[in-house]
Amino acid sequence: MDWDKLRVFHAVAEAGSFTHAGEAFNLSQSAVSRQISSLEESLRVPLFHRHARGLILTEQGELLYRTAREVFAKVALTESMLTEGKDRPKGPLLVTSTVGFMNIWLTPRIAEFIELYPEIAVHLISNDRELDLSMREADVAIRMSKPTQPDLVQRHLITVHIHAYASPGYLKEWGTPRGPADLERHRLIVYSEGPLSRITEPNWLLNAGQSSRLPRRPALRVNNIIGIMRAVEAGVGIAGLPDYFAENNPRLTRILPDVDGPAIETYFVYPDELRNSKRLTVFRNFLLKKIQRTTF
After folding, report:
1. Which CATH code for domain 3-83?
2. Long-range contact pairs involving 210-218 (C-beta distance under 8 Å, separation at least 24)
3. How far apart are CA 136 and CA 174, in angstroms?
4. Residues with Cβ < 8 Å from 253, sequence gap 6 or more?
């Protein structure tokens, strides 16, 4: 398989059009189209459905795209390591984030980063309270709200989507609600007062589809998202959870697919004085590659 054609294919799949992909390589739309056609001919399979409104990957194209994305992610990480030469990133790196993001998403993935950069001493701090980065309580934070401090550098990472979830056992016993009005007959699990109450409508399920002004009464209140997830898994009731919590988790079943909870904008944040820190840069690049493989 021609490496250059694979690079062009990856760019087209990411951009969704020949024109936008061509801009990245300084190629014309027709040149990109010829590269893709040549790749399809060599593989003897179609990679895109061509429509007037854009391009859609075929089943074979999806398979190749998933593989190419992993390959280029690994190449980018390797390139970062090689270009540093002898001056490899090293030293302590204190990372803070919320209890949910840290424990459910980041911690299971940190082993690969430690293998890539063994000279970086990673310290993970899970805390729903925002640590003061300017006072060096941490080097970098992954925050679930837009920072307001002027001396902090910020980069938008992801938009976290929240939906209603229950356990298979609970749904078997109580039935599956067909619409938000059916939640009147179900047990709801919500946040108690705490740091995450700053998120817009953390207890949105209490009002979803409500015609009256009186919110529903919850069956259980918990002060952190991990406790809420465990309660859902145990069959206590229904709760709003981030979609990435349910990834590869058979104990969580999404319900009410047409009802959306609040979206949470997530940011990578660090003090301006660490702008040129190599250990921070490689950690940020690592996060960005991993995020591409997760449904948030």
Report:
1. 1.10.10.10
2. 210/180, 216/183, 216/184, 216/188, 218/188, 218/189, 218/190
3. 49
4. 165, 166, 167, 168, 171, 246
Q: Which of 25-29, 203-207, 265-269 has the highest mean pLDDT?
A: 265-269
Question: Residue 91 in 3-state DSSP?
Answer: strand
Q: How many whole angstroms from its chain centre is CA 162?
A: 12
pLDDT tens readout for residues 115-170: 999 999 999 999 888 888 877 788 999 999 888 877 899 999 999 999 999 999 99
Inter-CA distances, 223 with 166, 170, 189, 200, 202, Å:
18, 22, 11, 16, 11
This prediction's pTM: 0.66
CATH code, 91-141+271-291: 3.40.190.10
Residue type, 174: W
Farthest-apart Cα atoms in the chain, separation: 66
Tokens 């996060």, located at residue = 287
Distance CA(186)–CA(171), nearest Å, equals: 10
Tokens of 62: 């999806």
What span, in angstroms and rounded, lies between the C-alpha atoms of 280 and 29? 37
Question: Which of 112, 206, 202 lies closest to 160, judged by CA?
Answer: 202
| Adjacent-strand bridge partners of 40 | none
Domain boundaries, the chain: 3-83, 91-141+271-291, 162-262
Which helix (DSSP H) or strand (DSSP E) does residue 185 occupy? Answer: none
